[in-house]
Amino acid sequence: MFAKSLMNKLKAAWLPLFLLTFSVTAAAVPDIQHWTTARGGRVYFVATEGLPLVDVRVVFDAGSARDGEKFGLANLTSGMLDTGAGDWDADVIAQRLENVGALLGAGAGRDSAYITLRSLTHPDKLAVAMATARTVLAHPRFEAKDFEREKSRALLGIQQKGEDPGEIAEIAFMNALYGNHPYAHPADGLKETVEKLSRDDLVDFHKRTYTVKNGVVVIVGDVKRAEAESMAEQLLADLPEGEALAPLPEPVARQSPETLKTAYPSEQTHIYAGVSGMKVNDPDYFPLYVGNHTLGGSGLVSRIMEEVREKRGFAYSAYSHFVPMRVMGPFMVGLQTKNAQAQEALQVALKTVQDFIDNGPTEKELEAAKQNIVGGFVLRLDSNQKLTAEVANIGFLNRPLDYLNTFTQKVQAVTREDVKRAFRTRVDMTKLQTILVGGGTR
Amino acid sequence: MLIRGLRIILLAAPLSLQAAEPQVHEYQLDNGLKILVQEDHRAPAVVSQVWYKVGASNEYGGITGISHMLEHMMFKGTQKHPPGEFSRIIAANGGRENAFTGQDYTAYFQMLEKTRLPVSFELEADRMRNLKLIEAEFAKEHQVVLEERRLRTDDQPRAKMQEHFESVAYSNSPYQNPVVGWPDDVAGLTLDDLKSWYSLWYAPNNATLVVVGDVNPDEVFKQAKKFFGPLKRSALPAPKRQGEVEQLGLRRLTVKVPAKLPNLVMGYKTPTLKTVTDETEAYALEVAAGILDGGNSARFSSRLVRGQQIAAAAGAGYDLYSRLSNLFTLEGTPVQGKSVSELEAAMLDEVRRLRDEPITAEELQRVKAQVSASHVYQLDSIMYQAMQIGTAETVGLSWKKVQEYVDKVNAVTAEQVQAAARNYLIDDHLTIAHLEPLPLPEGAPAPEDAAIGGGHVR
C-alpha cells in the first residue's frame, strides 16, 4: 500500500496543503438491507465480517419530547426496562445477560428512546441475549418497589446536575430557546415533575410508545440475512402493533434576543449562545454542516477555536454546532472561561460567528473543510459500533438508504455561496439567546 | 486532553473460539524507537500513536503538570512547521487527532484513512526532536491549560475531592500529584522548564510507536524507518524506584466543597502487574473488582443499590497496568436519607465478605464470561486496541501482557481472590474520603452585570 509511486503521489499531494482531493470508493460504504415485517416493523441490517459479534439497536419515537406535561417520563420509563420484566427481577435479568457476556443498554434523549444489545454470535449465547432483550422490551414490570427506588435515583441525578455550571447553563439554554415546546425541558425532567410521576404513567407511556410501528430495528454484525430476519421478528414479537406517533409541533423561534445570567460560585463562567438551527433531513443540511465545520465544528483548526483559544488563550474548549433534530434543533456556540473575561470571550466568539455569516468561508477554508470531512469519512464507519449508530440514524430519521453512499458527493457539491446563503437565512443573530452561569462568590 | 490513569476495566473475555488473537508485530529502530503494529483489515482506516515514557509520575515538587503542559506545546510548531500547522495538515488529510497525558505516559494520536499514515509519521518524527518552544505561544497556551484545570478540577466537586484524596492516600509516591498539576506549580511553569523537560524525555529511545489498522506491518516498518530512523537517541535519566512507603494505619479526610450531593471515595494500597511479586495476585484483584462492580449483577448493584438501597451509585476499580503500585478504589453516593458513613460501612462490609468468604462459582464464572466477551468487543475498536498495547508497553510491561489477559483472568480461582483480598484489602492500608457539600445557590439570578465579566478588551 505504500508502493513507491503512490508514496510519491502522496508526498506531492501533501506539500501544497489544502489541495488534496479524495475519492472514497463506494466499496467503503456498507450495503444496508431494509425490509418491513408482516406487522409493519421497519428493519435495517448490515452484515459484517471479521468479529463474532452482533450489535442490535431498537429505536422508538419515545424520547422526552413525548413527555407531555410529565417531564422525565420517557427517561424513567427507559431506565426501568431492565429492573424487572416478565418472570425476572433485575438480578435475574442481569445474570442472564452477564452469564453470556452480553451488554444491554437503554436510554432516552429528546427525540428518541432506544435499547442496545451487544452479543457474541455464538448461537446459545445469542439466544439467551435475544430472549432477554425481547422480554425487557415488551414486558417490563415497573414494580412499585423498583419504581420508588429508580425515581429517587433519578431525582438525585437531577440534583447532582445542580453542582455543574455547564449542566445548569445547558438546561437554561434549551429552556430559553424553546419556551413551551417539548424540547425545552431536560430529558431527565425536573425535580417537581419527576416527583409527581406514578407507576401508571410509565405503564401507559410504555404501552403507547414502545410499539412495532413507532420504532425501527437495526442489526449490524456477523449474522446472515435469515438470522437477522428472525432476530427482528423475535424482538418485535411481543410488542403491540401500535401506530407511529404524530409529528412533533414545530418550535416557534424566539422573537427577541435575551441574555440570562445566573450567579454560581465557580472559577469559570459557562456560556451558551444560540438560535434556532436546523432539523434532520433539512434541505440546508449540507451547507450548514460543511460551513460550521470551518466556523466551529472542527476542533483546533476551526475559526472559533482559533480566535478564542489559539490567539487569545481564553478557553480550553470553544465551539459552535448545529444539533439537527426531528423538528428544528439549535445552533449553539459554547465556551467556558475565567469569570473576569467572560464578556470579552463571548464577544470574540460572537464576532467570529457574525463575520462568518457576513462573509462565509474563504475558498481555502471551504476546501479544507471538505478535505477533512471527505477524507475522514471512513473513520465514521470503521467499527461495528459506529456503523450501528449511523444505520440507526438512517432508519429512525427516514433517511434514504443511499445516504452514506451519496454523503461525500453532497459535501463536495457545497459552494461558498451555498454556505453564505444558508447561514444568512438560517442563523438569525438578532434573536440570540445567551446564557451565562458563573461569577458568583463562594 | 488528559486522562487520569487509563482504566482497562474488566470486560474482556477469553477468546471466543472464532476470533483469532490478533498478532502484534514488533520492530525496533537502531535509535531505540520501538514499533508495534497490529493488523485489522475490516475498514480502510488506521490509528497511529506515539507514546512517550514520561508523565506526571516523573515530575517533582514545583513543576507538577509540566508533562501535560508540554503535551499542549507539542502542537505549537517546529523549525519546519509553524504553530498550528500540525493540526491543519492532519485535518487536510481527513484525520482526527488528539493527545493525552497520564501518570505514566504522554501520548499523541491520529486516526486516518489508511493511505495517509506517512503524513502522521512525518509530523510526529519532526516534533519528536525539533519542537520550537516559543514564548508568545507558551504565554497563550499557559492560559489555556489554567482554564482546563478550572474546567476539569476546580469547578468539579468530585474531581477536586479525588485530587485531595490522592494527595492523602499516598505518602511519597508521585501518584499523589494530579496529572494536570497543582495550581501554583502550573502557574509557575516557564519556557525554560519546558525546554529542559522536552530535551530530557523526548527521544526515540523513550518512545513507542503503535499502529493498528488496515496496514501491512513490514510496510509500516519501512515507512517508520524512513521518517523516525534519522532521529538521534538521547541519554535518558536512570529510572528512580519511587516506591510508596508502607502505610501504617487507616487515613481519613473530609473535603468540604460547594456541591449538591455527598460522596465517598476509598482506596486500598495494592500492587499492579508491574510491581507485584506473584502476578496471580494482581489478576485476582482484577477479578475482585469485577465481583463488586462488573456489571448490573455484581454485588454493589445487586446488594447496595437494589438490595439494601443504600447507594444511589457504587463502583469499584483496579488498574492492572500502571508503572507504580496504586489503589484499589471504591466510590459511591448514598441515597437520600442515608449518610456517607452508612454507605461506607456497607461498602466495607462487602470488602470484609471478600476476605471472609470465597466468592461463589457462579459469580466467578460470570466475571470470566464478561471478560471473554468484552475482549471480542474491544477488538471492534482499533483505537482501543492501540491504547491497550501502548499502555502496557509504556508502563514497562510488554504488549504480550495484553494478549495474556483473558487466559490469566480465566485461571483465577475463588481461593486466590479471597487470598488477595486478605493480603491487600486491609484497614491499615486504607484511605477514606468524605465529600461534605457546602451550600450552593438555588439558581439565583446574578445580582448585577458586574458579577460576570468586567474584563478589558485587549
What's the arrangement of secondary structure elements?
The complex is a heterodimer of chains A (442) and B (458).
Chain A: H1 4-14, E1 33-36, E2 42-47, E3 53-60, H2 73-80, E4 84-85, E5 88-89, H3 90-99, E6 103-108, E7 113-120, H4 123-138, H5 144-161, H6 165-178, H7 191-196, H8 199-209, E8 215-221, H9 225-236, E9 258-264, E10 268-276, H10 285-297, H11 303-310, E11 318-322, E12 330-338, H12 342-359, H13 363-375, H14 384-396, H15 403-413, H16 416-426, E13 433-439
Helix pairs in contact in A: 2-8, 4-9, 10-13, 10-16, 11-12
Chain B: E1 24-28, E2 34-39, E3 45-52, H1 66-73, H2 85-92, E4 96-101, E5 106-113, H3 117-129, H4 135-154, H5 157-169, H6 183-188, H7 191-201, E6 207-213, H8 217-228, E7 251-258, E8 263-270, H9 279-293, H10 299-307, E9 311-317, E10 326-334, H11 340-356, H12 361-378, H13 382-394, H14 400-410, H15 414-424, E11 430-438
Parallel strand pairs in B: 2-6, 7-11
Antiparallel strand pairs in B: 1-2, 3-5, 3-6, 4-5, 8-10, 8-11, 9-10
Label this structure with key terms.
heterodimer, A: 442 residues, alpha+beta, Cytochrome Bc1 Complex, Chain A, domain 1, five-stranded mixed β-sheet, 16 helices, disordered N terminus, B: 458 residues, six-stranded mixed β-sheet, 15 helices, 11 strands, 18% strand
Task: Please provide a brief summary of the model.
The complex is a heterodimer of chains A (442) and B (458). Chain A is an alpha+beta fold and 442 residues long.
Explain this structure:
The complex is a heterodimer of chains A (442) and B (458). Chain A has 442 residues and is an alpha+beta fold. Chain A is built from 16 helices and 13 strands. In chain A, the strands form three sheets. A six-stranded mixed beta sheet of chain A has the order 1-2-8-3-7-6, sandwiched between helices. In chain A, β6 and β7 form a beta hairpin. Chain B is of the alpha+beta class and 458 residues long. Chain B folds into two domains: 24-228, 2-Layer Sandwich (Cytochrome Bc1 Complex, Chain A, domain 1), CATH 3.30.830.10; 251-438, Metalloenzyme, LuxS/M16 peptidase-like (Cytochrome Bc1 Complex, Chain A, domain 1, 2-Layer Sandwich). Chain B has 15 helices and eleven strands. In chain B, α1 packs across α7 (191-201) and α3 runs parallel beside α8 (217-228). The radius of gyration of chain B is 23 Å and the shape is globular. The chains are: A alpha+beta (442), B alpha+beta (458). Chains A and B meet through α1, α3, β7, α5 and β9 of A and α2, β5, α3, α4 and α8 of B.
